């Protein structure tokens, strides 16, 4: 606004002034201006409007024209073009507003001429569920996410709905929320619109119908319509007659209706479908179906005329059965020995999915196994990808090989790969027994969606059916179980006692190829060993207990044995040794042995050199590599976790070519790595399993021994057990060789990652996951539910109980009686378990007996059984004449509880000898009798025989009976009994309390009126029956509910921990910290806390890498690391954070102590990692620590995965500095020998 020049105020001017309010154009009148101020409009903005934009011209001038960098003096044309470009920009304010367009609710569909296929028209069709996305829906109908997330998914995605999780049933959908109200379109429509006086009249009026003109065409069309209708209806009737009657259910899954993909399979399918429907409608479904593999499968080629994959050999029966099941798109569980050919099943599935244009995921527990399978399948199929923690090769392939952990994270993160998935193959399923990682298998099996079929391959396990039944039940689909115990190459097991050239032939057959245990061989071995024990030892007895032998003894045994085996051409040999140092020592001690020819030496040398070309010069000179090169040339090798990964692969490849003649290996070699040998030797049969030494389990022994015998090369495989110190116990050997392999057991446990991942999706509950775990598989909810409905019906059908008048206190009486029974039992158990109690219940003690036959009868104990559980007492009891056998006067009303008067026979007194249980003895009296139990029992038993039936009772019996009768008559109102607390000296709190409670209850019983009622017994029986049903019902309802889950208390404890650390809020919604923890696969709490407390911020990249090594390193070291002060502080901080978390967990009730929690983080490798990240060569690093090279490499590789996770987490928090630091750290450790690519993947 231009300023107005107003003259100064004169004497005639009114004292008024205007005040401009802000910049909106409002003015206010000021009537009492401050004197001496001029009149022009004042403003609340004394300096005018705030600058909305600076003067553009000067800006442009300054930035472009006066800036020599931008407008050079020489190349003016170019600069001018550039200038024009800038100046010609149009202002586009809308571009600042950014919102995603909402998805279209309709699409176009084409109308075609049915005969010619020409386009006639486009119609608009409404689309359903257009608003679904990976952020709000579990459905497969949702839109695919961005391509960058298609492989691994994102941790904000919902997973796809796991198969077998119940969708909403009709009942749940019918239940309305409070906000919805029913609108009745018939009666309560509003007739008057708001604001109007008159309204509409909706009543039906008969409209006058004008007669239409009759038109021939219209008539014809109506006639046609009518006849058409009739025809259609007839057809419909026919159809409905043909259509099988499907049971009505709430969800499609129950119908067993398969998806469209299966309809393309052979016509067999139709029959199967029908039989399936029948099975499904049956009362009790069995999910696991064992497949009979004894009868040969003759019509295999007829049923599958053009298989998806052909092998050069004829398949075994079990393989054919599996292939048939795969063709029908069913899930299978194949349990067979190693080398029986389970891979055939996996190969067929991969071929099928390539034929169907779908995908297959093959998971294995071990990275090395994944790499090998990748090479094998790559050679067979070509289109194969690999995903492990650090490698990602062609992830778009139709067959993906990965470790189980990666599949789990893909499922939780809703990866798009899952949409196209047809098969998931789980190899080595017996790994589910692994305490640390077994839970991952269960999570994956539970989380897999419905359209994915499952193939499980496992070593032989005894409970394959039970396991498959569990999977079938949680997935609501049949699992076909195919298990075979046949070995393609049978095994022979020997004991070897030789230790010198003289004794080198001492090999004794212990179990022959058909599986018979030969005792003869065992004793021969014992004798052979005995002959050599020195005369001195023999004079002191033959037990040579020491299992340990000296290195020189070992050396002579191995030299002798290998010499003997190579003479007999029994190589290659795998020698299983259960300690890494022992492996190395044994291999080194064979320095005089040479098992290869010169041609083989040349081949080994060239392969070794070629494989090492990918290492840097210095790394090729590592001591381990030089040592191994020397051993390999002589045909000897070592394989355990301490060997460098690249060397391990070289050794595996040379071994599979038959160039390694003797391989000293630990147990890991038997796990998965498919490398059969001619002979397997066990150095010992004891191993250390982390807690102590124990014998090998049958499963472990079978797994390792199964490496003997190469299919197609050997007739039998040889397994040799060395007897170095002495021959092992026969019982141990028998159990180990012929025992049952380990059962598959659930290792399910709750992890914070699992809880957080499920909490961030409202539709999935953690309790659902727990209920579906294998550990809860004994909960057969279906049968429970059925029984519950039965019980409810029975209860409603029962006659009502009469509780009028005198019987009004019947129910409280019942409760008192039941409590009395329970308390009595508890006290009696305490008596039986105590020394004094057993003394009191000894021969000759007079007792009061109550059971179906006797009511408060006196008896005397004659014999006490020696069994500690369910102890029985043989007693002589008095009874009525004629009631010796005992008529069942089942007095359900338990009259003895309120009636203490003793039984006195009305007629002549007779007796019976009975075995009593503890609950039959209702009291122990203070009296004892002198009895001669043997005579009484013999006499009684004699008189039970028909010919002595009428003999008079013997002297001993009649005396005892008379005594008992005298006692009863002397104390008709009840006899003094032993008190558990005062007489039997049971002073524990429980017993004292129970005893006092008993007195109270017994006294209260006398005050009840109902016992005097004539109807009492009948009504009591009714109420008892009713209450027992009710109790069973309550028990079942409890079992079906979440409250009975074994892990539920722990779940609440863990939730408490998460809440107090603010990972979730009180309502269970996942907070930022929880989102971060979802990214991290192990030690999630500690890592997240470190992130949020900025422990890593002050550290350099290499220091943070060194600090985080505590999360992946698990061994103890003897070497004290030398580290920088900042790192030392970092370690202290990590320990204090861990201590805090440990204490918090303890407070919330988790049974792990804070010390144990802190103790799992080992800092032995901090120095090594620090130096490695700073670029020190590997050779020098190996000198810094006593940890073996292979372990160091494995740790640094796993550390790289942790660094990646921390980088992701830092990105979520928005800490870009930390993110880039982690990237630097990751780059610093990814070099040289630690990250050489696997030989299998190239």
Care to describe what's here?
The chain has 1242 residues and is α/β, with parallel strands linked by helices. Among the domains are: 197 residues, Rossmann fold (3-Layer(aba) Sandwich); 236 residues, Rossmann fold (3-Layer(aba) Sandwich); 208 residues, Elongation Factor Tu (Ef-tu), domain 3 (Beta Barrel), CATH 2.40.30.300; 156 residues, Sec63 N-terminal domain-like fold. The chain is built from 40 helices and 28 strands. The strands form six sheets. The chain has a nine-stranded mixed β-sheet. Strands 16-15-23-20-17-19-18 form a seven-stranded mixed β-sheet, sandwiched between helices. Strands 27-26-25-24-28 form a five-stranded antiparallel β-sheet. Strand 21 and strand 22 form a beta hairpin. Helix 34 packs antiparallel against helix 37. The longest helix has 27 residues. It is globular.
